[in-house]
């Protein structure tokens, strides 16, 4: 009992300390400083694009993996999960050696006039690579859980395949998709290792909240504390949202 | 039996031998690694290093990190610790700045090219010593008027990333991801020379970096720490630093 309480305290204390240190008298002034607003702006819009791209490209892929049998599907499934367990800095190196100027696709991209490394696009790619697999996982589970009879009924009632997907499959899988999306967003928001290696760190361009916390630690603790407190609040909100979503999709 | 013997070896080090932890600026990585090997061979101590941007090491020391020696790449990250965290200050080496560009790219041939549109420049953040020296160098170029009155602003517009230590800056050029960067002359190591080209930087704009070293207050091995500092300043230590491109103090 006492041991369990001690462990719970260990898990709770650091975040509580961050909250109390971050939500200080200077909170609002620091929150309005350019270092903090720039980081929040960069993080919000890059994670926004990441989430959008994840839905657009991840949904059909997840559907394919959940519904179609093809040779090598299990292998592909495992490989697509790889970024989840890969150390982020390894992911960053992979991205740099693939999409960087000296990378595999570098010369081609260069010809097309596209420079990805050290750009906001690189931030999005880093987030997409490390975070999108969370959505893939959840969406696959969602599509697999949908009652195939309901789809078949819609089809016999005259719905087209798109109609059946739009009005039967999608709504039934929706709680799963939303949960995956929330996790993807949270992971993208916290992304650090791949971003600092592949996108670099420049205020207002590529310096996301986590990078801003890291660079602020070198000099002025103020912005780091405020951004950390914001991250604690955001993380808690995300977890709560996921809980609520999970409860909603649980069988009655 | 074997295991016990091994354990004894690990636990009981030779009489008077100490485990020394040295916090040193990233630019010292190669030189200090060799200095450490020579020092250990001579004294029987066991020296381990933590290399990072001097500003990171300073933050860690202020936060109570256990170390025996601190070697910084500038005074801005060293002097605030003097007395409280570090005892003594001796300059043991100097350094100069240099411009580097990827070996295979002709985009940056002279200092002037740093402001050309589309050039991707990587520098260190302002609180990193080399980042501070870099900004002073840009200001000196601007003051001279040679390349226009807004040289610093135009160069700054080309900066695509501000890194946390000089080795990260060098890495970005080495990988060919940046068109140019400002590092120390000593960073152009034999390993780096394979992938980068040195761009001439007129001496009148160059900045001199001075490296202070001191023993950390409360070091458990103060004598060994002092011996390390003395070794760095000795002829043997200076010869190693010279070989890695550092200048006399």
Automatic annotation (TrEMBL), chain B:
NCBIfam families: modA. The keyword DNA repair does not apply. Keywords: Metal-binding, Signal. This is Molybdate ABC transporter substrate-binding protein. Pfam families: SBP_bac_11. InterPro entries: ModA, ModA/WtpA. Belongs to the bacterial solute-binding protein ModA family. The keyword Signal applies.
């Amino acid at each position: 009992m006492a041991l369990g309480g001690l462990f719970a305290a260990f898990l709770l204390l650091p975040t509580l300390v961050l909250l109390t240190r971050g939500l200080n008298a200077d909170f609002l002034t620091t929150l309005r400083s350019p270092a903090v607003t720039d980081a929040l702006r960069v993080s919000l819009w890059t994670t926004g694009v990441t989430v959008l791209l994840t839905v657009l490209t991840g949904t059909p892929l997840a559907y394919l993996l959940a519904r179609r049998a093809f040779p090598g599907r299990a292998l592909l499934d495992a490989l697509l999960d790889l970024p989840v367990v890969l150390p982020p800095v390894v992911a960053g190196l992979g991205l740099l050696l693939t999409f960087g100027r000296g990378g595999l696709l570098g010369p081609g991209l260069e010809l097309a006039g596209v420079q990805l490394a050290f750009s906001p696009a690189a931030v999005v790619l880093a987030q997409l690579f490390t975070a999108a697999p969370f959505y893939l996982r959840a969406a696959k589970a969602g599509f697999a859980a949908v009652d195939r009879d309901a789809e078949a009924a819609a089809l016999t009632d005259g719905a087209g395949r798109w109609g059946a997907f739009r009005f039967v499959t999608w709504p039934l899988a929706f709680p799963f998709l939303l949960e995956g999306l929330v996790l993807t967003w949270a992971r993208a928001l916290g992304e650090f290792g791949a971003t600092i290696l592949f996108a670099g760190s420049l205020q207002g361009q590529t310096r996301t909240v986590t990078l801003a916390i890291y660079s602020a630690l070198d000099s002025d603790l103020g912005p780091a504390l405020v951004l950390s407190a914001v991250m604690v609040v955001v993380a808690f909100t995300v977890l709560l949202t996921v809980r609520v979503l999970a409860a909603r999709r649980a069988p009655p | 039996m074997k295991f016990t013997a091994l354990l004894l070896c690990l636990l009981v080090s030779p009489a008077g031998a100490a485990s020394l932890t040295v916090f040193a600026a990233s630019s010292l990585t190669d030189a200090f690694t060799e200095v450490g090997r020579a020092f250990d061979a001579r004294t029987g101590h066991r020296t381990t290093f933590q290399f990072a941007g001097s500003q990171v090491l300073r933050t860690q020391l202020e936060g109570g990190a256990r170390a025996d020696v601190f070697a910084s790449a500038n005074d801005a990250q060293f002097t605030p610790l003097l007395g409280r965290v570090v005892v003594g200050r001796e300059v043991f080496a100097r350094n100069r700045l240099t411009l580097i560009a990827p070996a295979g790219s002709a985009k940056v041939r002279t200092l002037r090219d740093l402001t050309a549109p589309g050039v991707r420049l990587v520098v260190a953040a302002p609180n990193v010593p080399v980042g501070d020296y870099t900004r002073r160098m840009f200001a000196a170029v601007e003051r001279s008027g040679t390349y226009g009155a807004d040289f610093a602003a135009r160069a700054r517009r080309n900066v695509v990333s501000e890194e946390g230590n000089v080795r990260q800056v060098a890495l970005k050029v080495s990988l060919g991801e940046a068109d140019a960067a400002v590092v120390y002359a000593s960073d152009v190591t034999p390993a780096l020379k394979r992938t980068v080209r040195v761009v001439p930087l007129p001496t009148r704009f160059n900045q001199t970096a001075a490296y202070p070293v001191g023993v950390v207050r409360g070091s458990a091995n103060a004598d060994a720490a002092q011996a390390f500092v003395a070794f760095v300043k000795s002829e043997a230590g200076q010869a190693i630093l010279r070989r890695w491109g550092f200048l006399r103090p």
